[in-house]
Amino acid sequence: MSVFCGRFDLLQVYSILARRSILRMPRLVLPVSEFRLQSCFASSLASHDIAMSCIIEQKKALRSRMRRELRLQYESLAHEEDPLIQKHVMDASWYKRSRHICAYISCHSIREVGTSQIISDIFNSVHTDHPKSLYVPWIQDKQSHLKFFHIGSSEDLIANSMGILEPIPANSDGSPRSDVMQMNESIDLILMPGLAFNHAGRRLGRGGGYYDCFVKEYLLHAAKMGWKSPLLVGLAYSTQILDEVIPTDTKDVPIDALVSSSGVLRFSNHPLLNVD
Ligand SMILES: Nc1nc2c(c(=O)[nH]1)N(C=O)[C@@H](CNc1ccc(C(=O)N[C@@H](CCC(=O)O)C(=O)O)cc1)CN2
Ligand SMILES: Nc1ncnc2c1ncn2[C@@H]1O[C@H](COP(=O)(O)OP(=O)(O)OP(=O)(O)O)[C@@H](O)[C@H]1O
C-alpha cells in the first residue's frame, strides 16, 4: 500500500521533511532544468510541481537567512554603504540620461538600501535643464499587482499598513495621479529593492511577486508601444551579493545591473549601460 495517497499529501510531506532537514536540498540550489528528483516522489508527482515546491522552500529559507543577516548588520551597513551606493547611482551615465524613473521609497524597518538621496535628486532636477520624473510603487492588491504613480514631492506620500511610504493615489485637486501604464512616454530606469542578488543578475525579492509581475506587464506594454525596455537596476548592501545560485523560477525577471558600495556590476548589454 502506498504511503502517499495524493498530490496534496506528497507536497505536505516533502515540505515537512525539507523543513526538518531530513530531506535537505544542497545549499547551492540547482536551476529547475538541472534539478534531480528524489526517486521516491518522481513516480507520483509531476517533476515540475516538485521542483516548484522545492524552489519556494529554498526561496523562503534564503529570505530568512538574509533577514537574519540584515538584522545583525543593518545599522553599520546603512551608515557606511547607503551614501556610497546612492552616489554610484547618481554618478552613472545611465542615471543622468534617464528622464522617467521608477524607484522604491526605502524603509528602515525592513532594512532596505536607502534611496532618499536619489529621490531628493530627482525632485530637485525639475529646476534643471534635465528634469526627471519619479514614479513610486503602490500596492494595488495582494495578488502581486503593483502600480507606479508619479509624485512631485514627499508630501504626495503616505505610510501604508506595513509602514512603507506609498503615493496618495489622487492629486490634491482630486484628479487621479499619473500612472506609468498610462504614460505617453516610456520608463527609462527601474531601481529595484531585493533581499539577495548574485553575480549572474539574479534577484530574490520579499516574496510578494510584485516587482516580477509589474516588470513583466510593463515589458509587454513597452513592446506593444514599440518602446525600448527600461534598465533594471538592483541596489544591494555588500552582504546581499551572494556567490551562490539564487533559487529562481520562470517568473523571476533578471536585472541588468546591480549597484553596491563597490560600484556597478553589469549583467546585460542593455543600450543604456553602453553610453558614456
Ligand atoms: N520600499 C519598498 N516598497 C515596496 C516594495 C519593497 O520591497 N520596498 N515592494 C516590493 O515588492 C512592494 C511591497 N511589497 C512588500 C512585501 C513585503 C514586505 C515586508 O515588509 N516583508 C517583511 C516580512 C513580512 C512578513 O513575512 O511578515 C520583510 O521582508 O521583513 C514589504 C513590502 C511595493 N513597495
Ligand atoms: N509575473 C507574475 N504574475 C503573477 N504572479 C507572479 C508573477 N511573478 C511572481 N508571481 C507570484 O508571486 C509569488 C512570489 O514570487 P517570488 O517568490 O518570485 O517573489 P519575489 O521575487 O520575492 O517578489 P518581488 O518580485 O516582489 O520582489 C509567487 O506565488 C509567484 O508565482
TrEMBL record:
GO terms for cellular component: mitochondrion. GO terms for biological process: folic acid-containing compound biosynthetic process; tetrahydrofolate interconversion. It catalyses: (6S)-5-formyl-5,6,7,8-tetrahydrofolate + ATP = (6R)-5,10-methenyltetrahydrofolate + ADP + phosphate. Keywords: ATP-binding, Magnesium, Metal-binding, Nucleotide-binding. This is 5-formyltetrahydrofolate cyclo-ligase. InterPro entries: FTHF_cligase (IPR002698), FTHF_cligase-like_sf (IPR024185), NagB/RpiA_transferase-like (IPR037171). The lineage of its organism: Eukaryota, Viridiplantae, Streptophyta, Embryophyta, Tracheophyta. Belongs to the 5-formyltetrahydrofolate cyclo-ligase family. Transmembrane segments: none annotated. It comes from the Eukaryota. GO terms for molecular function: 5-formyltetrahydrofolate cyclo-ligase activity; ATP binding; metal ion binding. Its EC number is 6.3.3.2. Its cofactor is Mg(2+).
